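Mods, move this if it's the wrong board.
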Amino acid sequence: MASLSDALAFKSGAVMPNRFMLAPLTNLQSHPDGTLSDDEYRWLSKRAEGGFGLTMTCASHVQAAGCGFPGQLGCFSDNHLEGLSRLAAAINEQGSVSVLQLHHAGMRSPRDLIGEQPHCPSDNEKSGARGLSHSEVLRLRDDFVAAAGRAKKAGFTGVELHGAHGYLLAQFLSPSINQRDDEYGGSLENRSRLLLDIIDGVRAQCGADFLLGVRLSAERFDIRLAEMQTLAQQLMREGKIDFLDMSLWDSFKAPEEEGFDGKTLLQCFTELDRGDVLLGTAGKIRGAEDARRCIEAGADFAVVGRSAILHHDFPRRVLSNPDFTPTPNPVTAAYLRREGLGEAFIDYMASWKGFVEG
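Not the wrong board. Structure tokens:
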């Protein structure tokens, strides 16, 4: 049985010194043009210092029109390279695997933030988003690939493609949101095509020794569990990615979709034929027992979010204390400052019910 303290080698050659991955957490701390701020640098480099085996950035948009929230880190321009290089170097220096998450918010891009109508696989009346033309889909594919190349140039070990949480790649995967009638809509094969094309493009651009992961949702966001299980199995059998990061919200809940009786949501993916693709899970991993339970259930690594905000050194605390539980909420703003959060991030966490005092 694997242990949380065990190193984990990806087929690309990268090695996590333990089984803890920092979740890609929205933090609103970078500059309006997407360049890295000192606050975002401090937040992420402090987690690498705190012992995370893999330190992942927040969602970083590959097109200016793909921005999903204020203060989002960008990767759509060479103007971002200086900050990205500084960040990658700081993470690498701590012996943590550095990963830039690539993202486009699609119909979830606020119109007043991007200055134009949001984008979507097809026209979407509810959000007011417009459907992408065929040529724009191809441009989107190329911009994801170009962003991966930028990440490699900056010194990141790899990238993760954000195909979860109802953002643009997930919108393509949705049978209800995606109403296209070309090769990017209709069947699951067609709805998955953009993601698979991006994977092929990143491999061609960045090579086999560049770490490549994909994040998927299993439920919610107009996604079907059975389809995501099928897609996950395809990704693992084809073996073009290094890891699959399943964002489950609660790793041990029962699936909502019929046909999966007696299984946890995590089991729907640990039971797949994984080949040499590694599997991680995110969802209510709060303390040491939760993290151990994920590994014991068959996941290769645990993806930690909320507890990483509360404790920059969460991995070290867990590895030194098998009974460790995080500081209970609410916490003070001063506490969060000590843990490396800037004021914008603290204000954002104050919008989470019961997280910050006052």
